[in-house]
Write a structure and sequence with these properties.
Blueprint (H helix, E strand, L loop, with lengths): L11 H8 L4 E5 L5 H7 L4 E6 L9 E4 L5 H15 L2 E6 L5 H11 L3 E10 L7 H8 L5 H12 L11 E10 L2 E11 L9
Parallel strand pairs: 1-2, 1-4, 2-3, 4-5
Antiparallel strand pairs: 5-7, 6-7
């Protein structure tokens, strides 16, 4: 019997229990597959992506480098054609800010309404070699959060009565964020108070 090792921050499992549910999950960066085995306890369909060839019983693992966005997109399309939109996606891949940004933008369309997208190991963006990347406003998780905030607040002051959609809810924790794909309809409500 082979021992499969995995490494996660101690608080991640509790956050997974709190935020991840459904029938299908995709995790990028599976190492030896320990996290996929954990996901099998909760999810019916477990998929993984790793740059190395990895085999995990009861799971489908694709070999792909996260820099290959076309291949990532085709994997997303293949998964959705098999089981429908994913209920959860975890990016535990390269941990590089620009990859986390590009992978999110590539895989987000394959997440189901109500699904949760997690990006792990955010502390990596604080390493000295990546700080300049974020400071220059290049693709990174801080830039992604700024863009998501701007996207959900875009609307015209001239058309205040038109409802707008808020496409996600963001949960931020040490070293990990969860972005839920949930559409809220928001409409301005002006109140008047007679004094």
């Amino acid at each position: 019997m082979k021992t499969i090792k995995g490494l996660k921050w101690s608080h991640f499992q509790g956050l997974y229990d709190q935020h991840l549910s459904g029938k299908s999950i995709l995790e990028l960066g599976v190492l030896q597959g320990a996290s996929l085995i954990e996901h099998k306890k909760r999810f019916q369909h477990v998929f993984g992506i790793d740059m190395n060839e990895v085999q995990v019983p009861g799971c489908t693992v694709y070999q792909c480098n996260v820099n290959n966005l076309q291949r990532l997109r085709s994997i997303g399309e293949e998964i959705v054609s098999k089981v429908g939109p994913l209920d959860a996606i975890i990016d535990d891949g390269s941990h590089r800010p620009f990859n986390q940004y590009k992978v999110f933008r590539t895989l987000w369309p394959f997440l189901a309404e109500g699904g949760m997208y997690a990006i792990e190991d955010l502390h990596m963006a604080r390493k000295w070699r990546w700080r300049f990347w974020t400071a220059l406003g290049l693709p990174s998780v801080p830039r992604l959060l700024k863009e998501l905030n701007n996207e959900q607040h875009e609307w015209s002051w001239d058309n205040e009565d038109i409802p707008r959609k808020r496409p996600y809810t963001i949960h931020i924790y040490p070293n990990i964020i969860f972005i839920q794909k949930i559409t809220h309809e928001i409409k301005n409500v002006w109140t008047e108070k007679v004094v």
